[in-house]
Amino acid sequence: MLTATDLRKRFGARVAVDGVTLHVAAGEIYGLLGPNGAGKTTTILLVCGVLPRDGGHVLVDGVDLDSGPEARARIGLAPQWLGLYPDLTGRENLEFWGRMYGLERAALSQAVDATLSSVGLLDRARDLVATYSGGMMRRLNLASALLHRPPLLVLDEPTVGVDPQSRNAIFEHVARLRAEGTAILYTTHYMEEAERLCDRIGIIDGGRLRAEGTRRELVASLGDDACVDVGLAGSDDALRAATVAAAIPAVGSAAAFGGGIRVVARDATILLPPLLEALLGAGLRPNRIEVREPDLEAVFLRLTGRALRD
Amino acid sequence: MRRGLVVCAKDMRQRIRDRTAVTVGILAPIVLTGIIGVALANDEGPSPPTPIAWVDLDGSALSDALQRSLTEDWPARRVAVVRVASAEDAEAAVSAGRYAAAIIVPKGLGAALYNGGVPPSLRVRTGRTFALGGRFANALAKRATVIAQGAAPRVDVRAPQGGTLRSIDHYGPSLTVLFLFFQLLGGMRAFGAEGATGTLARLAATPATGREIVGGKLLALALLGALQFAVLYGVTRYAFGVSWGPPSLVAVLAATTIASAIGLMGAVIAAAGPYRGYLLGTLLLFVLSLLGGQFLPPEGLPDVFDNLARLTPNGQALRGLTDLAAAGADASLATIAEPLLVTAVIGVVGILACARKLGVAATPIV
Lengths: 310, 366
Fold this sequence. Notes:
Chain A is of the alpha/beta class. Chain A has helices at 40-47, 90-100, 105-118, 134-146, 164-179, 191-197, 215-220, 238-246, 268-281, 296-304, and strands at residues 2-11, 14-24, 29-33, 55-60, 63-64, 75-78, 152-156, 183-188, 200-205, 208-213, 226-232, 251-257, 260-265, 286-292. Chain A has 2 domains: 2-219, Rossmann fold (3-Layer(aba) Sandwich); 223-304, Alpha-Beta Plaits (2-Layer Sandwich), CATH 3.30.70. Chain A contains 10 helices and 14 strands. By secondary structure, chain B is mostly helical. Chain B contains 14 helices and 4 strands. In chain B, strand 1 (50-56), helix 3 (61-72) and strand 2 (79-83) form a beta-alpha-beta unit. The two termini of chain B are 29 Å apart. The model of chain B is unreliable at 129-137, 151-161 and 361-366 (pLDDT under 50).
């Protein structure tokens, strides 16, 4: 459904996207996982034709995105920023976006009603968007992307700032759309979201796709590596601790994480003594050690040398 | 094109719902025009007649002809020329505020002109009411100077077809043009702000082309400007009796004025961004309004003000509208040729300059 090949984008001297290639099939959720500033939003804006590309090619449902503006009708975008007009009602917002995608009259009215109902906003349809809660705005934002039933849906961090109830509602809706055959490109910096929703995950950092695959495949790429979390007491400097840990030969990678450090290493049993010795020798005070099953966080740490969430 | 009209309709709905926009664009100029209309209800020009002190030190037939031409050439202005015996008395009276200005015809003026010599200068002393009552004094002095450079001409006095213009005939169109520019500045700010909020990028993700998006937004602004102008025209004409001139010509000039307002304000917003641009645009509008004669008619002021007014789109629009009113049935496109040209050029250049920049999908992340 989506084939994006060798996408490139620079802003002045800064390389925002550097040769990203990805494919999303119909009925699949592809998660683009990376921290803030990794290039997720720029990538999807290139895919949607909002930003001009410096290089690369995009095919959506077999149609070249460069063939003309009508190619964008195959894409539904729910951007991270809210593409809504607060001084219009929920219904007016959807009617406007529906008309921009070519819906008219009865078809528009039916699509608006159905979409509002599916996101649970039918009873608030006549209220100004400015009166909506954050979660309601996110649901309406999602609804605006679904109106014209696009074969490709692009969701950029759709649950940012959303209450748990609305987040679950969004997850359920996205899962339903996948079951109906929609191809979904989903960006997030939450590992839990990627693990829960996505069939395949691409890990992006510094504008490059570092790895991609199913969760199982990505975690398996760590091999026998273990993931160790070390808590630090009081005001100990986690960044300094990560530097100290990274210097140990047995350590694959280390990063500050959650007030302590997270370490990925080949063997936890031979790692622990030199790790503790190094930390204590540096004047640091480790107060907790936890050996964890590897997860996407550990994969990211191994690939980039830093934590998914700073 | 269809999507452009969808964008246009949406923008119009948003602006019409904006109570601040309605207050600033329509209510405020109507109220201000009404206040001025009540304040100057009996005004048929400068009221009471502007007193000008005339000191004739020359005593020649030429100086007599000069004095007569000042009253006979300007019947609509209602100036009262009062002979004063000495220059000192005249200047003292001006300082005391009894006269708006004093014109002192020097000894030997007539003889110098008739004999081909170098004529002495005509002296003009203006008083503290110069800006208001005395605004015509400078024009009178200019006329005296022109006449003095040649033999006293025959004077053909004709009152304007549109009748005598009152102060409200100036301030009605003046406030209409001023608030039109303010309203369109606000509209262009809203356009620019869409780049910051991200709805412009969202629009760029739809099948609409850049031309449809920008064209739709500019069309909405133009239609709203026309609606505002039409409402103010109607209210000031029928409620306050403001003279506007032939409606069809007023409509043509209104169209190019709206274009110039969109172009100029759009260029400011495009250059400085929606928020800083709005502040700069407001400041610019105040300056342009002062130069353009919105608050103070340039006639009667030094020549430089007249020239500066002609450099401003609002000044040209106001000049054109008052010329149309003064010309009445004699008005034609030629009456407003210069205002049409200047406002149209500013409009086209400004719109082309801002449209491309504002049409770029500026996302909040970059």
